[in-house]
Amino acid sequence: MEIIASYYTDVGRTKQINQDSLSVKVVNSPKGKIVFAIVCDGMGGLEQGELASKEVVVAMNRWFDTRFAKMVATNTVSEELIYTQWRSEIDAVNDRLADYARKQGLTLGTTVTALLTYQNQYYVCHVGDSRLYQVGNVLQRITVDHTLVAQEVRMGIITEEQAKVDPRRSILLQCVGASTVVEPQFDCGELKDAVTFILCSDGFVHLVTEEELQQKFNPGILSDKDTITSTCREMIRLVMNRGERDNITVVGIVVRP
Predict the structure, then answer these.
(1) pLDDT of the residue at 47
(2) Is 5 buried (19+), middle (13-18) or exposed (0-12) by CB count in 10 A?
(3) Are 31 and 50 contacting, i.e. CB atoms less than 8 angstroms apart?
(4) Which CA distances in Å does 26 have to 3, 61, 115, 118, 169?
(5) Rounded to 5 degrees, what are φ and ψ at 17?
(6) Lowest-confidence pick of 124-138, 140-154, 160-174, 231-245
(7) Alpha helices (runs of H) in the chain, residue ranges in sequence order
(8) Residue 192 per-residue DSSP state
(9) Alpha-carbon dihedral 215, 219, 223, 229, rounded to 10 degrees
């Protein structure tokens, strides 16, 4: 399996601190190449959002380096075990951040969107409104936004077009650190053909179309790491020029089975 990955992140046009955090790991194993990528979009006053997003990245990477590495070494990798351990990690970080916030008298939290590929499968863990897309012959959005307006779209109260400009679109129904109970979205799928996975914070998606994502992140034209980096940078500049004011992070991962 061939895996090529890169990213670009920008503080944006108006903010002083980039509260997005990310990690991309591509490792070799006796079972072939493995990729583990995370994008977290923190929220909170001053640097607290940055603290929250980094805490989740550190915890999930620790899981990958220890608990998942043990699974691979003992040939015990399974969907059920991955999801069980991910839930445990998310719950533990949620409790730590909530305890810290309570002691400091503040509110902080973060989204998390994580992607793991192993052999011919991919696995997803998601909380909040960062997103994961898969680009092949068609574009597929894998994650569901945990926001008030997204819920109203699913209930038929408002339309997709109305949701895009709704002033409440940033209101999260759950995030890690500020929710009493977190219920992650877990998903998985089979890797059959060449695809590009796009992980991104919500600052990237408001002002870009699905047609543009399909065209720019087609795995057939992303031949190396530099091309992925330049595409991520180009698309971030595009949405900034269209008026996006938030931090923006994009990770592109090409997988060819």
Answers:
(1) 62
(2) buried
(3) no
(4) 8, 12, 12, 11, 34
(5) -125, 135
(6) 160-174
(7) 48-63, 69-73, 79-104, 148-154, 160-165, 210-216, 225-241
(8) -
(9) 60
Contact of 10 with 40, CB cutoff 8 Å: no
Q: What is the pTM of this model?
A: 0.96
- Other C-beta atoms within 10 Å of 217: how many? 25
Both tokens assigned to 45? 């006053």
Across the chain, what does the average pLDDT equal?
95
134, containing H or E segment: strand 131-135
Q: What per-residue confidence (pLDDT) applies to 166?
A: 87
Please, which pLDDT band fits residue 45 given cuts at 50, 70 and 90?
A: low
CA distance 112 to 30: 29
- For 36, the token pair is 């583990």
Of all residues in the chain, what percent carry a pLDDT higher than 90? 88
CATH H-level, domain 2-256: superfamily: PPM-type phosphatase domain (3.60.40.10)
Using CA atoms, how far residue 71 sits from 7, 126, 129, in Å, is 28, 21, 29
Cα separation, 250 vs 222, whole angstroms: 15
d(CA 172, CA 170): 6
CA atoms within 13 A on the CB side of 7: 22
